[in-house]
Amino acid sequence: MPNAATYVLPALGIGLAALAILGPGSPRMATGVRVWGTPVAGSEALALRIEGVRRLHGADDPAAIPQIEVSATSAGEPLERWTGSLDKDGTGEALLRAPAGLQEPVTARIALGSVTLLERQLPLLPPLPAAETTALPGAANATALPGAAHGELRLQVTVARGALAAPFPERVRVAIEAQDGTPAAGARLEVSTVGAELVEHGSGPAQIKADARGAAELTLKPLAHTVELTLRATHPGSTPPGTRSASGTWEGKLPVIPGAVWLDPGGLDGERPELRLISPAPRPRAYVSIGGARGRALGAIVPLAADGAGFFSGRVTLPDSLAPGEADWAVVASDPYEQGAGTVAWPIASAAASASPRRVELLADGMPAAEARERARASHARRAGLLVLAASAVVQVLLLALRSRTARRRLEAHVADASGDEGKDGTHGAPLSREDRDRLLAAVRAEPLLSVLALAALVGLSFAAVAALATFR
């Protein structure tokens, strides 16, 4: 039995250690979550965009995580829980109602079964003044577009919804004033465009008459990402009889957002308003943040599918639970971080002209904790493999010592027989002098011991080499 164990044990120990080190002890993808949003102090909703991430060697991939639970507390008071899954794109929208309003500190916890993926305090943003503007493309406001203006008449050009998306129609408003600031009622406006066409007028110049307030409205359909607009206004009634008519010109570029997903304003009418999203380019989904003066109130991931018009469209119905002022605008993006160039804030209510939409921000990152958990798991498995190696080496050395002791006793017995002592079989060998017999026994005892020590050292070195290689993982 010791002889068999001497040969089997090293292979078994190294095999078990290799299974532990190369199996559970090998690096695996760390799975964690990130939390995005724009929570505002006093808001009655905590709308969070949850992102599942898998990371290996610094490279991140989306992680579809089933059945996570999101819980939070506001000023120590628990909010309602949210349970759901992250889709194959690794994103999900969690909505936790806060009837008493969000107050510092707000702590969120995301769990997958008994494992806590993230537990962190979330920062609250202060409410923005209604008059504060934003640099987010498409945020509706009454700011006039920059352009080159000349002449006695002053022209101000604004886009009704703040931005244009090709090739979808949008309204453009023109205000015409005389030099004294009075409206140029009934002024005639000649319109020409490059890169767009005038709905109901085509691509050529069009003549439009301003109303009694000196305002004119035209509908443009951009056909390119760069659209130039040229306006020439004349107003005979603003000059004395017999003199030439007052005139003014305006030339500028319109804010066409390349790659923007268009929000069809027709879907907002009716008893059940809905967001109808249309993308000119193939996209699997659109990411929407709905909010108002009190911040982000709701998030949605809208699947897009090919329609009969050659576009990709999808829709989402606005819930009845949204209070007035909570759904003034919708930030529509093609990426979950709302950082792409095609991100647009479309107004969905009349109050949106004074709202200040914000893009979602990274509130908490659970990936460092996920990587720490993965390192601890792999380290525990590697320690178990190294323990198996160490135990195998100790047992192997003991078995070698046992075999050496048994072999030495057998050799001593044979030497005793050869030196004239009575052996185990009752025979006697040729007599030797005591001096020769002592030298022979000393040689017999020394050589096996040296061999055993050398073999034990070689075995220990082999196990140590395997253990050293394991530390390079």
From TrEMBL:
The chain crosses the membrane at residues 384-402, 449-472. The keyword Transmembrane helix applies. It comes from the Bacteria. Keywords: Membrane, Transmembrane, Transmembrane helix. Residues 413-432 are annotated as: Disordered. This is Uncharacterized protein. It comes from Sorangium atrum. The lineage of its organism: Bacteria, Pseudomonadati, Myxococcota, Polyangia, Polyangiales.
